[in-house]
Amino acid sequence: MAHSLVHVVDDDPAMRDSVGFLLDTAGFEVALYRGGTNLLATLPRPARGAVLTDIRMPGIDGLELLRRLRAGGHTLPVVVMTGHGDVPLAVEAMKLGACDFIEKPFNDEALLQALRSALDRAGPAEAADPSLQEFIRRVGTLSHRERQVLDQLVAGGTSKEIGRALDLSPRTVEIYRAKLMAKTQATGLQELVRWAVLAGLA
C-alpha cells in the first residue's frame, strides 16, 4: 500500500533497526533515519506516509523536528515515541500537531495500532470527533478534586508530586486517579493525555 510508508527517526541504531524490522514484518514500507536532519534533507514534496520519531535526540529533537516539518508545509501525521514520564513533552508534541504519542518501552501491537490510526487519519483529529465530544462531556462529570488531579496528571505530575501540590497522600491521589479514569473511560494515561490535549484541556 502506497500510504503505509513510515519514516522512522531515532538516533539509537538498535531501536531504529528493531522498529524497522517490526514494521517491515507487519507489512509497512519503512524508511529509516538516524536523525531529524536526515529526514528533513531527504523528504520529498509532497511527502506520503507517516513519521514515527523519538522525542529525545541530539541536535534536532522530536519537538524541533515537528516544528520544522509544519513550518516547511508538511502535513504528514506524526507519532512521537517518549520515554517513561515524559508526559509534559508528549503534551507539547501534541500541541505542535503530533497526532499521537507512545511511551517506551511499548508493546508491538500498541505501536502498530497507533501508526495504522495515524495513516488512516492522515492529519490531526477533528474537534468534531464524536468520541472527543463524549470525552469532554465525561470530564464535566468529574468532581472538583478529580478535575484537579486530571489537570496535574496531564501536566506530567506523579502521584507523589500531585499529592504534595494538592495536600493529599499519594494513596488518595491514586484513588482519585482511578475514579477519573473510570469516569472518562480512558484506557490509560496515554489516552487520557491525548484526549485532554485534543479537547483543549492541557
From TrEMBL:
UniProt feature coiled coil, ranges: none
Task: Please report a single Pfam family linked to this protein.
Answer: Response_reg
Q: Which residues carry this modification: 4-aspartylphosphate?
A: 54
User: Signal peptide location in the record?
Assistant: none
DNA-binding: present as a keyword of the record? Answer: yes
One GO-annotated biological process of the protein: phosphorelay signal transduction system
Q: What are the UniProt keywords, alphabetically?
A: DNA-binding, Phosphoprotein, Transcription, Transcription regulation, Two-component regulatory system
The answer to whether the entry has keyword Translocase is no
List each copy of the Response regulatory domain by range. 5-119
Q: Which terms in the Gene Ontology molecular function aspect does this entry carry?
A: DNA binding
Residues forming the HTH luxR-type domain are: 135-200
Name of the molecule in the record: Two component transcriptional regulator, LuxR family putative nitrogen fixation transcriptional regulator FixJ
Say which species the protein is native to. Methylorubrum extorquens (strain ATCC 14718 / DSM 1338 / JCM 2805 / NCIMB 9133 / AM1) (Methylobacterium extorquens)
